[in-house]
Each structure stands twice: as C-alpha cells, then as structure tokens.
Amino acid sequence: MFRKLHLKMTLFCTAVTGGILILMALTGLRVFESLLGKNDTASYEKTVSSVLAYLDGQNILDYDTINRIADNNFYTISVYDRGTVYSRHHSPKEEALMETACETALEKYNFDIQTPPKPGAIITTLNFSLELDDVSYLITLAPLTRKYGTVCIVIAYQCSQLNQQIWLLRFSMLAIIVIACLLLFLFARIFSARILKPVEESRKKQIQFTAAASHELRSPLAVILSSAETLKAADAGEKDSLYEVIASEGRRMSRLIDDMLSLTAADNQVWPMHPVQVPMDTMLLDLYEAYLPIIHEKGIDSTIELPEDSLPCTVCDRLRMEQVLCILLDNAISYTTRGGRITLGIMQENRTLKIWIANTGPSIPDEQKEQIFDRFFRADTSRKDKQHFGLGLSIAREIMHLHKGKIWVEDSPLGGPVFCLRLPCQPQ
C-alpha cells in the first residue's frame, strides 16, 4: 500500500512541479526569442542605416567599404541604376534572391526598381521579409538621389544566425527541462518517502499496539471466563475465591483499558489538561511520605534530597504530574529487591526543574534506554507481574510531552537506573 502511495505521490509532485516549470520555461523562451528577434532587427536596421549613409555621401561605389560595414556572410547588396545592376561576386543563389526580392517588391508593394522615382519626388524606403528555399530574409529597397538621377539599393539579410541562436536556445531549454524534471522526480521520491516514513512507522506501531493489547486483554479475559465456568460447579467455599479472582481480573482489565484510552487521547491530542501553579518540591515530598509505608513494607531503604532554598513553581496539570511520579515510584518499588534503596530528588537547573527517582534494581542496557518508553515493552520479558502492562512509561512520556518537558533514564553510579524529569519553571 505504501509503495503504491509513494509512487503516486512521487508522480503527482513531479507532474505538478514539472508542469509549472515547463510553463515558466516556455514563457521565458518566448520572451527570449522575442528579445533576440528585436535585437537582430535593431542590428539590421543599424547596419542598413550605416550602408545607406555611406552610399549617400559617395560619388563612387566602394564595395570593400560596404562589405566592412555590413557582414558579408549574411548581407547581399546590389545597386540598380536605370536597368544596370552593380554587385560584387554574387553567387547564382544570391542573384536568384535579388531577382525574387525585386519581383516581390513590384508585385506586392508596387515598387519598381527599374524606374525609380525622379528627383524631387517623395521617396520612401521599402522593408519586408522574404522566405526563399526555407530560409528567411529581411529585404530593404532604398532609392538614393544622385546628381544624374535616382538609383536603388537592394539589401538582403539572411536570418540564419538568428534562427541558429533560437534553435540553440530551444535545445538548451529542452535539456534544462529534462534534467530539471529528472531532478524533481528524484527529489519528490526522496521527499515523499520522508513524509510517508513516520506514517508507515505509525501504522506499524498501531498494528503492534493492537496485537499487544489483544494479547494483554486475552489473559485476564480467559481467567474470568474460566472462573465463571468453574463457578457453576463450585461449592460454597470455593465461590468466594472465584469471585475474588473474577473481580481482580476485571479490575486489571479496567486499568489496562484506562491506560489504552489515555494513550489514544494523547495520540489524538484530546487529552484534557488543567494547568495550575504547582510547587514541585512540596508535591514530591507529599508523594514520598504517601509511599513510605509501601516502601518500608517491602524492606527497602529510601531517601529524598531537597534543596535548602525554596524552588520556583511550575505551571502544570497537578494530577497528571502526580500520575507520572506515581508511575516511576511504582516501577522503582516493583524492581527493587529487599534491602535495596530508592532515592528521590529535585533541583533547579537554569530555568528548569530536574526531578530524579533512582533505585538499586537491575540496570537497563543502553540499547533499551529508549525502547522502555515504547508501548507494551518490558525490559525483562521473564517477569510475570500482572500489575504492569508495559504502558506506564509510555503514558509518562506522553504527559511530559504535553508539558513541554522531558523524561529519560540514566545509569546510577551506585548501580541501577535513574529516571529523570525536566520541567520548565517560572522565574522567582
């Protein structure tokens, strides 16, 4: 499913972005071609003006000078004087060009070079374009008044240089578009893969979560069904114990469902929060005193480390933060053996409060320090404690995330893990 979605997103992004790029490239190409055409026309007009200005001031025609003014590779120039043609080394192709230009001028524009206007008449210069043998030309016919009469200058400019520039520009733009589309395809493929990666991981986690939740729910449900079946044939003395088993497993299922609903609310960002100012050192001390009977009952030593000066308050949901601390304390008591030690502490670091709960239970390997916050993860898979489902630390992490805080685990110098919390606090 994700492979098909990845391919569709890649093709869609490439098509949309590539289409915009092609549209912009074609628009730019049209503008560049127009500019090239205007520059070429301006250069042609400037050259024609230079040739006519030179001829107008000369009594004797000098084709060497004319060829220096006009590039001989692209210009063909002839002078018509009362039926006589003066030109320099015209090839048959150029002669045919001149003949066609004169015929076109006469047929379309009624401009006859054989009978030029007489002196004193209104003389105009004729400019038009001509297509001959799939080659474009710009043609100029210009009468020049001399002492003995009027002569006509015919100038033909071959636009092959402009066409070469235009086609070179088109091929260059095509190559750029192809390369750009390939790069866009690669970028879209990589970018869409990065976008889909967390979605795919989230889906895998949901599948794992569903499978793990089903497994966890199956165990107490099986005990309840088995006890209910046994209850039918049990005598009066056994019924009380069976009722207690059913009630205990029902409460266990209720806790598991509550935990799963809490995580679902956190995932959907609908977990209600009621932030108030809370003195964290006082709350930590109250919880420590509340857990002292349980700690002493298990034969565990405990200490709490509080700073001499009062600490600033932090804005948080008091019940949620108590839930986090209770989760950590329950885990510490559960994993600490008789004769071990649990240490609670709090201190201020810059604009944050750091809280830690250390115990002398089994250490957590480095490769599991992040995994222990995953849902239904147990560092010790051999433990069969029915009070823990592997969701407590996941809930604690979600609560800390909602408070813009952090939770992590370190190694204690005396052995065992140290769970640390960091919360932003208000300056005093």
UniProtKB/TrEMBL annotation:
<dbReference type="InterPro" id="IPR005467">
    <property type="entry name" value="His_kinase_dom"/>
</dbReference>
<keyword id="KW-0812">Transmembrane</keyword>
<dbReference type="Pfam" id="PF02518">
    <property type="entry name" value="HATPase_c"/>
</dbReference>
<dbReference type="InterPro" id="IPR003594">
    <property type="entry name" value="HATPase_dom"/>
</dbReference>
<dbReference type="InterPro" id="IPR003661">
    <property type="entry name" value="HisK_dim/P_dom"/>
</dbReference>
<keyword id="KW-0808">Transferase</keyword>
<dbReference type="GO" id="GO:0016301">
    <property type="term" value="F:kinase activity"/>
</dbReference>
<keyword id="KW-1133">Transmembrane helix</keyword>
<feature type="transmembrane region" description="Helical">
    <location>
        <begin position="167"/>
        <end position="188"/>
    </location>
</feature>
<protein>
    <submittedName>
        <fullName>HAMP domain-containing histidine kinase</fullName>
    </submittedName>
</protein>
<keyword id="KW-0418">Kinase</keyword>
<dbReference type="Pfam" id="PF00512">
    <property type="entry name" value="HisKA"/>
</dbReference>
<keyword id="KW-0472">Membrane</keyword>
<feature type="domain" description="Histidine kinase">
    <location>
        <begin position="212"/>
        <end position="427"/>
    </location>
</feature>
<keyword id="KW-0597">Phosphoprotein</keyword>
